[in-house]
Structures are given as structure tokens and as C-alpha cells.
Write a sequence for this structure.
């Protein structure tokens, strides 16, 4: 890494220096709700090549920045003022850190050298961010801006990615840095490669196994890893399944795809997991809801990831391959090959049962519409490279299980923090990164209303975006769990606005689905027309109990092809 001078013999203002350093890092956008403590920085952004995306809530700005980081691998940047602006970023900070998305938060602060406002709006933002970030610092001297920014970006983007935070006080933003202050070039450091000894041990375990199975997790959702895993699956012939955040790493139309572990236990795919004597776990992270539970004396697990396993009571792998995932998987693909010792008969029986199960009721005509029909209609209208961004609710489980993803990062969901309110901002970031693709936000009425004001932002940005709003007038997932646990129906229902008129009041186009047969044409029309569209569909969640409580409750894993 080398450093370059900013080229100004008289020095440079702190906010200008920060913006130049951000440009040097390749930053294109800053998602922001600015305050008066940010005004110097706002002026520096105005005269730069960075585009300011003005949001309507700091949480949405953070969700957009985090999703930008997830999709590009580069740091997404968001900006807020001090106090309440900074606290509104905290959910997005947790979202980025748990979800391994590179994000930089910049918050303002009152002058630190002298202030006449006492403690008005002042909280210790640096300490507040400490549990949620990989790095949090106050900038107390303009000369240190380039070094602190370089360190923040390095930590945000290196494995495991996450959120970082810098606080820029008002007087430091306006302070002149010394003429010899340098901006540091981005690092070109390569990720370390796993040792040959650990790779050879993994190969031996794979050869010795009778019923090996590959699990694909969130850490594998990278382009290079995706290509390597396709190579490994084809070279070894080993079947695979995914976690929720591992969807699409390998095309789920692949004949060796068994399904998604949307639940932790008791689903059809767990019949295959229970049968396996070895799970080759590529990119799993324990921040995700467990896709299966390990037990002492049970199946063996190989952990292949950028970093060592975080051991917990249900995840304690017997062997670890630590290093660049793509390199590790490519090595195994080249050196394992297919083994005559492997027997995948049972896995294919499970696959047949999964496929039959997932094809049930997909054309059901009931109204309100059942989840299976909603998922099927969305899959039929979305192109192969189309992106769906799911908020958090009951529908997320249905989409994880029933919606086949054809490419990596075409299903954006959060199974780490699992925050409501992220679906719309995440879809907006995807529409910005991929303006040539069809993008759909899929939200429940509860999650949508948490950041629905960002419809105005989407329209102002002239995005092409469809919002599928699944409406049950309740916090549906919690309501289902309430009933499942034997509690009375209480405290989870509410009234909603007229969503079509609500969307139209922002300038979007609203569509109300009034029969099962209207859903697919409404989605096709919205996707074709361009601009921002909201499609409201009432949902019948009675299938939650029938499928997840009754049908899966009776599942004994005595699945055979044709039965």
C-alpha cells in the first residue's frame, strides 16, 4: 500500500479530505439523511463525483448501503447526523454486521474543541456502535482522516465483512489538514489459501463417507465461489442443499439440488440431512438460523469458510478448511472426483418427495391467495436473472422453500438479524446496482409500513421496481407462532391504509388483486411497464398450520420415490 498527497500546498478542509479519500476508495453513492452537523461534508459531496442519495429515514439509508455492499463487495456508505440520526442507523448496523455486508456509517457530532450547546443531542455514539461494528472511531484531528478511513474500509470489506463507523465532528469537518497529509491507496491484499494438509484431510473424509452431502451457506454467495461450487458439484456428483442465505449459489434447477433448509428441523430436506454421514458445509455462519442441529456422535461436518467456525451447542464441526472458499472448493473439485463408495439413492428419493410436495396447490384458485400460489406466480413472471428482495415475515419461509433461485444473489433475504423493514430499501439498492434487471420487493403489510416512505425516494430516483405487498392485516408470523404455542389470538392485528391509494399518493402505480387469476397478469403488467408499482395481494395463511404443523408434524422420513 502506498500513499499519495492531496496536492494542495495550503492544506485542505477536513470534509473535502474525507470525500477525496472516499472517492479514492471507489465510493459512488452516499445514502443519507443529513443534519446541520453534516453541512460542511454535504457541501464537499456536492462538489465531488459522489452521488448523494437522500433517504426519508436513516434506517432505510443503512439498509440500502448494506445491500449495495452485499451486491458489489465494495463498501456501501451511509450518512446521518448525531443523536437520533445515529441511533436510527443502529438496526442497519446490526443488519450489515450479522449479514456480513460491508458498510461504512458516517455520523456527525457537535464541535468537540468548543461548544455552546451543552449536551443537547449528544450521546456517546462511538461506544454505542461498538457492539454492532467491526470498527468505530471519532475523528478528532483532520490530519488523521485518510488513515482512519482506510482502516475502516479495510475492516468493512475483509472477510468476514460487516459494518464500521466514523464520527466526524462539526469543527473537524471544517478544520484544515496539514499540507503533507496523504490519502492511502486501497489495499490489494489477497485472502489466504487453506493449507494443503487441511484440504487433503477433507478429501479423505469425503472419500471415506458413504452418504456425503454438501450444504451451501451465506458465505458462499459470491460470484467466484458460485463458479467453484458448480465445478465441485458436477465433478463429485454429491447432492447439495442450501441455507436461506445460500439460495442461488448453484442453480436450483440442478438435478442434484435437494432443497432449502428454511426450517431448522422436521422438513423434507432434513430426511436427507439425517441420512447423511458427512455434511460438507460451505460458507455457513452460525449467525443464520440453524439449518440443522448437530448432535454428539452424529454425522461428521467439514467446515469450509474464510474463517474458523464459531462453535455453539448445535454446530461443532470435526474438521475445518479455513481460507479463501473459492480456492478450497476448486481444489476439492479437482482432487476428489466421484467415488464408488458413495451411495446417493436415498437422497434422490428425498428429492422426488420434495419436488412433489413443492408442486402441490401451486395453481389453487382460493382467494385470498395461499402462499404456494403466490410463490409460483412470482417465479413464473420473474426472468432467470430477476432479483427478489424479501422483507421478514411468514412469506419469507414460503419463498425460501418453494422459490427456486437460478443465480447467486437473485434472492435477497435476511436470515441473520431478520429485521422487518429491510425489503423495500434492499430492493431499491438492487434496482440501482442492476438497472437492466427486473427487481421485485416482496413485503408483508407490517414490514412494508416500517419504511414505506421510501416509495418517494424510489420514484425520485426513477427506479424500475415492483413492490408485491402481501396483506393479512396482522403480524402474521408471530400470530402463527402464537396459535402454534396454544395462546389466544391477541395483540397482533391492526388496520391498514388503502395501499393502492397510498402508493398513488407518492406517484407510484397501484394495483389491487381481487382474485387468484389476477395476480400473475398484474405482476407481468407492472414488470413490463417500468417505474414504481405496488401490487397488493390478500393472503390466506391457513396453509401455515396445515403444512408446517400438520403435514410436517406427521413426516417420518419414510420417503420413497413414487409414494
Amino acid at each position: 500500500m502506498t500513499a499519495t498527497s492531496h496536492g494542495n500546498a495550503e492544506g485542505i478542509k477536513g470534509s473535502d479530505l474525507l470525500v477525496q479519500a472516499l472517492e479514492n476508495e471507489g465510493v459512488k453513492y452516499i445514502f443519507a439523511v443529513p443534519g446541520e452537523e453534516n453541512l460542511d461534508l454535504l457541501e464537499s459531496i456536492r462538489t465531488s463525483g459522489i452521488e448523494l442519495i437522500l433517504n426519508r429515514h436513516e434506517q432505510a439509508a443503512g439498509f440500502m448501503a448494506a445491500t449495495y455492499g452485499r451486491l458489489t463487495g465494495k463498501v456501501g456508505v451511509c450518512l446521518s447526523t448525531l443523536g437520533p440520526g445515529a441511533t436510527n442507523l443502529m438496526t442497519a448496523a446490526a443488519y450489515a454486521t450479522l449479514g456480513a455486508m460491508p458498510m461504512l456509517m458516517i455520523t456527525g457530532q457537535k464541535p468537540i474543541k468548543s461548544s455552546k450547546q451543552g449536551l443537547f443531542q449528544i450521546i456517546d455514539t462511538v461506544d454505542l456502535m461498538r457492539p454492532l461494528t467491526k470498527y468505530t472511531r471519532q475523528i478528532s484531528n483532520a490530519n488523521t482522516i485518510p488513515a482512519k478511513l482506510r482502516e475502516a474500509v479495510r475492516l468493512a470489506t475483509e472477510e468476514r465483512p460487516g459494518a464500521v463507523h466514523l464520527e466526524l465532528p462539526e469543527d473537524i469537518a471544517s478544520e484544515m489538514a496539514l499540507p503533507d497529509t496523504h490519502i492511502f491507496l486501497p489495499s490489494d491484499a489477497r485472502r489466504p489459501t487453506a493449507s494443503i494438509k487441511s484440504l487433503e484431510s477433507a478429501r479423505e473424509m469425503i472419500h471415506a463417507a458413504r452418504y456425503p452431502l454438501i450444504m451451501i451457506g451465506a458465505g458462499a454467495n459470491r460470484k467466484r465461489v458460485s463458479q467453484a461450487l458448480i465445478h465441485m458439484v458436477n465433478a463429485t456428483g454429491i447432492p447439495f442443499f442450501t441455507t436461506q442465505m445460500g439460495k442461488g449459489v448453484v442453480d436450483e434447477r440442478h438435478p442434484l439440488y435437494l432443497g432449502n433448509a428454511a426450517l431448522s428441523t422436521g422438513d423434507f430436506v432434513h430426511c436427507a440431512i439425517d441420512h447423511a454421514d458427512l455434511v460438507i458445509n460451505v460458507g455457513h455462519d452460525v449467525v443464520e438460523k440453524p439449518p440443522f442441529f448437530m448432535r454428539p456422535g452424529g454425522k461428521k461436518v467439514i467446515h469450509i469458510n474464510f474463517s474458523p467456525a464459531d462453535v455453539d451447542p448445535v454446530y461443532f464441526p470435526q474438521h475445518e478448511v479455513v481460507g479463501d472458499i473459492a480456492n478450497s472448493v476448486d481444489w476439492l473439485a479437482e482432487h476428489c472426483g466421484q467415488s464408488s463408495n458413495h451411495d446417493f439413492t436415498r437422497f434422490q428419493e428425498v428429492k422426488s418427495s420434495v419436488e412433489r410436495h413443492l408442486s402441490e396447490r401451486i395453481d389453487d384458485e382460493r382467494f385470498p391467495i395461499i402462499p404456494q400460489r403466490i410463490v409460483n406466480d412470482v417465479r413464473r413472471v420473474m426472468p432467470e436473472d430477476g432479483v427478489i428482495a424479501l422483507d421478514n415475515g411468514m412469506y419469507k419461509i414460503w419463498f425460501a422453500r418453494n422459490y427456486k433461485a437460478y443465480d447467486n444473489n437473485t434472492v435477497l433475504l435476511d436470515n441473520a438479524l431478520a429485521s422487518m423493514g429491510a425489503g423495500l430499501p434492499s430492493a431499491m439498492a438492487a434496482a440501482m446496482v442492476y438497472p437492466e434487471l427486473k427487481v421485485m420487493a416482496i413485503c408483508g403489510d407490517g414490514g412494508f409500513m416500517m419504511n414505506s416512505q421510501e416509495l418517494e425516494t424510489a420514484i425520485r430516483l426513477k427506479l424500475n421496481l415492483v413492490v408485491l405487498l402481501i396483506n393479512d392485516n396482522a403480524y402474521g408470523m408471530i400470530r402463527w407462532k402464537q396459535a402454534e404455542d396454544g395462546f389466544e389470538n391477541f395483540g397482533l392485528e391492526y388496520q391498514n391504509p388503502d395501499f393502492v391509494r397510498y402508493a398513488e399518493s407518492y406517484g407510484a402505480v397501484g394495483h389491487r388483486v381481487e382474485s387468484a387469476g389476477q395476480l400473475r397478469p398484474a405482476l407481468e403488467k407492472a414488470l413490463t411497464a417500468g417505474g414504481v408499482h405496488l401490487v397488493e395481494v390478500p393472503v390466506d395463511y391457513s396453509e401455515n398450520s396445515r403444512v408446517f404443523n400438520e403435514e410436517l408434524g406427521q413426516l417420518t422420513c419414510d420417503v420413497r420415490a413414487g409414494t
